[in-house]
Design the sequence.
């Protein structure tokens, strides 16, 4: 009897505690009544508070600074480019693109009412200082700025500031078909930074040492400044940031009172978190079929999948004793069945996948031409592959490919250990077996090391592509490029990719890029497979939100327009 | 005891030194800290890579780097364990490894301490009950629960707990349990009661996960140890003297039976810092586990070495504490 009373008392105490908790707990996670609040996940931790440096230059830093960093323009989800007419007074001006008449020149003029959150006007000086910090250390502007690279910034000979206007003059003989990218959303810094804060803190930006100090300060100090619709009011680089409307914002008024951006590195937590009302959505960096399937089952959630900017490709080492023969390379690429690879990896979650038929341009680009399909490469046509080999003097001895009585291979087939690539390698191994080539799969721990040391025969990895294309071909294929890992050497390609980089117009550059890509196919050097899909999900209570796979900002590209659904 | 302690501490120095050499060499040869930078698009200017090599001391030979890492002599003031500097990080030029470890140690300890206290209490209780009711239905049930907890993969169990938490919230129509984060930010501006309930909301699920995974092994130790003691002559004598069962168990059997568990728990406490990696990942706590994962992902050699050294030091210190506690708990043991 005594025991039972004790148990009952314990039960009653537990129930009361639970009732009290029910009434009180979780207060922090819920928004105050009447406040319009959205919680948007950033899929990893940003390394710094600015994205100019090599360490800070990640999509996560860019997304953390969304709505804070001003920029001059951005690629839209539909592949068109839009200038940011909140920040600019007029569309930027191309002053001269005829190198016979003088150096390449262009200018930007900022809007009269464009101000930083402390009321200081935005000027050409902000752009000048941002470009100086984005240029590589050899440019001499800054001693310690470890910029993540500024091909566009490095071309600049002179920057002339006149109040709200800045005029760029490029070095002699250089042209830049993508000049509008100088401080747009896709630039090294993801936009431009407030130069007046350097002076306020006592640094002279024209002193390379002091500019370095300003650079460090920007990267290590949580921005209390903003040049966009929101400003960061709380947060750190490990847990989350909180954004509230910038009172000095001169554009259309933001529709939310608060945006909380927690950093969450584990996609498997998303489903429970959105079900529990802890998050409103995310644009994860990785494709995850399991998570997508679970999200699809949630009635209050919208999910979209599209082609991401990482494109997978298979590269051959042209200095391998067997692979230096272009006919063997062509046969290998012909035997590989790209559709099989794409379908096995993404067919279930993203049946609309498209094979990539141009190394430089996506199929939605106005410059796209299909350079792959007609070549037969990637078709998985083993008979055609064998025909190529037999014409080149190879012969099949049972299941083994032979040349002059010697077995061809075995070849080392390598990739990093991801589920997608593991599946892909197993399929490629089977495809090559059909033409008598034995391939041995080896997993890569250190991709950069393996590629730079050419420690492979066949390798699969990904490049990230953007709508800007003029620097990529030279990086991929020029015989002097450190990223031409398989050591393709073709003078004609070298000339074409140099021409891409020095063209004054995008149309002309695109023409050269397509010609170079066609030659790369003839050389059977790189076989593009497909752009890996990315997904995005959002609670339906949030309106005016969509993924932008053309931009590192992803769904936060229009953060100023986010609102709560009626 | 003081002499013994000093001798043990001095004895730990060569062990730590050897551990530091092994740690350094293994991590140093495991990959290029700048591989991500080299793969960047568009490619960084060679001067950027040179700058990073210089900053991370990759322009020095391996023995020189080890010397720098230990002493800091010849460095830029950001390296040298003996000077309290853990070295530069690949994660950012402004990333202070020492400061981060200190911050994250606090987060991990918050999680671990609560989990350990509950795990220990539960382990002792269930171990003693199992031993006292050996081969009863209760014993079999507790044994089954123990083995089940031991067998469950942490990441899976954590996911299940999250789902259970969400289910419970839906049932009561309020957000009692949170599934991600440690709640630090959510506690801002709350009064004492609010902070308490907020802590409960964020800590309950990860604490249960960590508690159950530790409790399982410990309860088995406790049961075995208790059984051994219950069958010993002096317990039988105590019973024969007519002492009440409660007194026999509490004063005579339990005290002795706790001694082996002390060692296991002390070493386990050190090991659990490593063991929180998965729990912290799933519940998104920015503790030492997440620090370790971030360091691996960023090829951050000095951060990894710092973590491993901390982990190694914790094991050595825990062993020392266990040995000393042994002497305190068991009067038959004398330190010489």
Sequence:
């Amino acid at each position: 009897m005594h025991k039972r009373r004790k148990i009952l008392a314990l039960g009653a105490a537990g129930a009361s505690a639970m009732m009290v908790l029910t009434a009180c707990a979780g207060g922090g996670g819920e928004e105050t009544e009447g406040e319009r609040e959205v919680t948007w996940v950033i899929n990893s931790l940003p390394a710094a508070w600015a994205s100019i440096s090599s360490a800070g230059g990640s999509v996560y830093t860019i997304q953390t600074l969304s709505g804070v960093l001003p920029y001059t323009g951005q690629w839209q989800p539909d592949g068109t480019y839009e200038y940011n007419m909140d920040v600019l007074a007029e569309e930027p001006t191309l002053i001269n693109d005829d190198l016979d008449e003088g150096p390449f020149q262009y200018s930007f003029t900022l809007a009269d009412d464009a101000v930083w959150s402390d009321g200081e006007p935005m000027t050409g000086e902000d752009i000048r200082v941002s470009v100086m910090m984005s240029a590589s250390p050899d440019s001499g502007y800054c001693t310690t700025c470890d910029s993540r690279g500024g091909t566009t910034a490095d071309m600049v000979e002179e920057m002339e500031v006149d109040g709200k206007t800045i005029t760029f003059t490029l070095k002699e003989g250089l042209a830049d078909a993508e000049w509008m990218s100088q401080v747009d959303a896709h630039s090294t810094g993801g936009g431009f930074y407030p130069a007046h804060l350097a002076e306020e803190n006592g640094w002279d930006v024209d002193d390379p040492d002091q500019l370095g100090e300003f650079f460090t300060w920007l990267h290590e100090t949580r921005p209390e400044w903003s040049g966009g619709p929101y400003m960061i009011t709380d947060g750190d680089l490990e847990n989350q940031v909180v954004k509230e409307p910038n009172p000095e914002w001169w554009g259309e008024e933001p529709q939310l009172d608060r945006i909380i951006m927690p950093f969450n590195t584990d996609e498997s937590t998303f489903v429970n978190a959105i079900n529990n009302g802890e998050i409103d959505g995310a644009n994860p960096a990785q494709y995850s079929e399991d998570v997508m399937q679970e999200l699809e089952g949630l009635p209050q959630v919208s999910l979209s999948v599209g082609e991401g900017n990482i494109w997978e490709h298979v590269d051959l080492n042209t200095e391998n004793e067997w692979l230096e023969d272009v006919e063997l390379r062509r046969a290998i690429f012909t035997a590989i069945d790209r559709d099989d690879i794409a379908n096995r990896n993404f067919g279930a979650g993203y049946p609309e996948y498209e094979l990539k038929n141009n190394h430089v341009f996506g199929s939605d680009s106005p410059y796209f031409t299909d350079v792959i399909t007609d070549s037969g490469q990637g078709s998985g046509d083993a008979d055609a592959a064998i025909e190529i080999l037999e014409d080149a003097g190879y012969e099949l001895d049972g299941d083994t490919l032979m040349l002059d009585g010697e077995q061809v291979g075995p070849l080392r087939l390598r990739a990093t250990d991801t589920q997608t690539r593991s599946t892909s390698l197993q399929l490629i191994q089977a495809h090559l077996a059909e033409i008598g080539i034995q391939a041995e799969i080896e997993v890569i721990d250190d991709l950069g090391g393996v590629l730079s040391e050419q420690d492979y025969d066949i390798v699969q990895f990904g490049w990230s592509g953007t709508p800007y294309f003029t620097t990529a071909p030279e990086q991929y294929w020029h015989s002097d490029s450190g990223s031409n890992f398989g050591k393709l050497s073709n003078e004609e390609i070298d000339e074409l990719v140099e021409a891409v980089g020095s063209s004054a117009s995008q149309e002309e550059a695109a023409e050269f890029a397509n010609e170079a890509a066609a030659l790369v196919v003839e050389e059977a050097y790189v076989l593009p497979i497909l752009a890996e899909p990315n997904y995005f999900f959002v609670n339906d209570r949030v309106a005016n939100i969509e993924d932008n796979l053309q931009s590192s900002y992803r769904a936060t590209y229009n953060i100023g327009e986010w609102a709560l659904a009626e | 005891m003081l002499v013994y302690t000093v001798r043990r501490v001095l004895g730990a120095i060569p062990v730590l030194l050897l551990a530091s050499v092994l740690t350094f060499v293994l991590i140093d040869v495991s990959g290029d800290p700048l591989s991500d930078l080299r793969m960047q698009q568009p490619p960084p200017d060679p001067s950027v890579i040179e700058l990073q090599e210089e900053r991370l001391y990759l322009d020095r030979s391996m023995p020189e780097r080890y010397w720098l890492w230990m002493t800091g002599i010849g460095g830029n003031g950001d390296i040298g364990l003996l000077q309290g500097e853990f070295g530069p990080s690949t994660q950012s030029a402004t990333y202070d490894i020492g400061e981060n470890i200190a911050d994250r140690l606090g987060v991990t300890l918050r999680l671990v301490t609560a989990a350990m206290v509950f795990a220990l209490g539960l382990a002792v209780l269930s171990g003693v009950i199992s031993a006292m009711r050996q081969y009863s239905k209760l014993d079999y049930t507790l044994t089954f629960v123990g083995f089940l907890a031991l067998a469950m993969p942490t990441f899976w169990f954590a996911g299940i707990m999250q789902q259970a938490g969400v289910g419970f919230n839906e049932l009561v129509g309020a957000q009692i349990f949170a599934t991600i984060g440690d709640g630090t930010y959510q506690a801002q501006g709350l009064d004492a009661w609010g902070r308490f309930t907020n802590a409960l909301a964020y800590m309950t699920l990860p604490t249960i996960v960590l508690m159950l995974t530790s409790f399982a092994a410990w309860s088995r130790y406790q049961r075995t140890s208790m059984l051994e003691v219950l069958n010993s002559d002096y317990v039988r004598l105590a019973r024969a003297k007519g002492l009440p069962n409660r007194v026999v168990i509490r004063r005579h059997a339990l005290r002795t039976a706790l001694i082996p568990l002390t060692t296991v728990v002390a070493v386990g406490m050190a090991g659990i810092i490593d063991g929180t990696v998965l729990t912290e990942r799933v519940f998104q706590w920015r503790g030492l586990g997440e620090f370790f994962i971030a360091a691996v992902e960023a090829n951050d050699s000095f951060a990894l070495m710092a973590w491993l050294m901390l982990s190694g030091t914790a094991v050595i210190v825990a062993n020392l504490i266990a040995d000393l506690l042994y002497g305190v708990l068991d009067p038959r043991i004398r330190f010489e």
The CA atoms of residues 40 and 124 of chain A lie 33 Å apart. The first helix of chain A runs from residue 2 to 24. The first strand of chain A starts at residue 37 and ends at 41.
